[in-house]
Amino acid sequence: MIARLNFLFAVSILTVLLFYFVGRFVILQVILASAPALAPYFSAAYALAALMLTVLVLAKTVIRLGPVSTVVRYRKAGMRSGVAQVALYLAHLCTLFAAYTMFSQQDVAAAWWPWVLAALLYAGGIAATMAEWRRLAMQAQ
User: Fold this and answer.
1) CA distance 133 to 130
2) Angle at 140 between CA 139 and CA 141, to 5 degrees
3) pLDDT (tens digit, 9 = 90+) per residue, 95-137?
4) Three-state DSSP class for residue 72
5) ∠ at Cα 109 (121, 58), nearest 5°?
6) Whole-model pTM?
7) Which of 66, 75, 95, 125 has its CA 20 to 30 A from that of 104?
8) Three-state SS for 106?
9) Cα separations (Å) of 81 from 34, 55, 72, 124?
10) CB–CB of 77/69 below 8 Å?
11) Whose CA is closest to 80, among 13, 135, 123, 2?
């Protein structure tokens, strides 16, 4: 149960991080270059769209992995599952550290590496969890 909740939390945080990076470093830069007066309005609309798409991604993840997770519930988890959970917990710690450095430092642009490390750990943990769940589902068939 905790592993599934941790997985869903990781999927939602990774989706939010991806939307943040795309919005901050791609879309906002284009808007600031073309129409700087409209940047706050586009930023607000982008934040709402990103929130809605995050909920959509999480709902799709729950629906698609529902049958797999019921099979996994009755199987013994392997070493890959433990490594994936450790990667997800480390990613949570990196996210907390990144948030702390973002709010405690003056130069926010210099504190980009914890966010990238957290995103990489989330992606690795999610990929390892999905591979383990699919392996267990294939063994059940």
Assistant:
1) 5
2) 95
3) 999 888 888 877 766 678 888 999 999 999 999 888 887 777 7
4) helix
5) 40
6) 0.78
7) 125
8) coil
9) 47, 25, 11, 12
10) no
11) 135
